[in-house]
Amino acid sequence: MTDDSAKQASDRVGEGERGEQQAKPLEGRVALVTGASRGLGRATAALLGARGAQVIAVARTVGALEELDDEIRAAGGPAATLVPLDLKDGDGIDRLGGAIHERWGRLDLFVHAAAHGGMLRPASVFTPKEAGPFAEINYLAVLRLIRIIEPLFETSERPAAAFAVHSVGGRAYFAGYGASKAAGAAAAESYAAEATRARVLLFEPKAMPTALRSKMFPGDDPTELSTPAIEAAKLVDALCSVESEQTAAQE
Q: How far, in Å, CA of 161 to CA of 138, rounded?
C-alpha cells in the first residue's frame, strides 16, 4: 500500500461524521484481518482501527505489521495486536483461535484478504507441488479460518465476516491461482449459507495496483485501476451495513 493510499484511507475516516462518538463507530469491536501487511488487507485493517476497532492483524511480514500499527495509532485508534503468521501453518491458525478466545472471549468482525498468486502456467504443465501453496493459502486456509471464527462468533452480539474473492477461474494460465480462489470462494459461500448467527459477505474488489496483481497482470494501466483505500472503504461500509441490519432485526 502506498503512502498516498494510506493517506486516502485515513482521510476517508470520519467523512460526514460529527463528534467523537461518531468518529469511532467501531469502538470496542474485535476485528481479525488476514493479509494485513499490504494491499486490501492493509487498507482494511487501517480503516477498521481508525474507526475504533481492536484489530488483530495477521501477515507474514513483521515490519509491515508494525507500520500498520503506527498508522492506526496515528489515526487515534487502539494499538493493534500483531500476529506474524504464515497461513500455510494450520496449527498456527488453530493457536490463533485459542489466543483470541483467551484474551477477548469473542470475535465481532473478520476480513480474509490474504491470497497467494503468481506463477501463471499452462494447466498441462502445472505440477501438484507447484499447486500446493495455492491450495494451502487460497483454499485450505479459508476452511481453517472458518473453523476458528465460528465458535468465536457465538459470543458476539453482531458478528460479521467478509471474504475477498477474485473471479478468474477458467482463464488461460490461471489453473493454480484461479482454481484455488474459486475453491476458497465456494467454501466461503457454503459458510454463508450455513451460518446461523454471523452475516457473511463475499466481496470482490475492483482491480487495484497491488504487488499481487502486478505479477499476474503486468500490462495494467495504473490510472485505470481503483485503490486499496477505496475498495477497503467499500468493504468496511458493507460490514457496517450488515451490523446495522442485525441491530435492527434484534430490535
A: 16
List the beta strands (DSSP E) in the chain: 30-34, 54-59, 81-84, 109-112, 160-164, 199-203
pTM (2 d.p.): 0.86
- Domains identified in the chain, total number: 1
User: How distant, in Å, are the alpha carbons of 61, 67, 68, 125, 175 from that of 64?
Assistant: 6, 5, 6, 35, 30
d(CA 77, CA 191): 31
* Domain assignment of residue 233, given as a range: 25-245
Whether 17 maps to a domain, the answer reads: no
Residue 132 maps to a domain: yes
CATH code for position 86 = 3.40.50.720
Residues with Cβ within 8 Å of residue 21, at least 6 apart in sequence:
none
State pLDDT tens for residues 3-23: 444 444 444 444 444 444 446
- Please report which helix (H) or strand (E) contains residue 40, including its range: helix 39-50
For residue 20, tell me if it sits in a domain: no
Q: Is residue 185 part of a domain?
A: yes
62-109 pLDDT, tens digit per residue, is 999 999 999 999 999 999 999 999 999 999 999 999 999 999 999 999
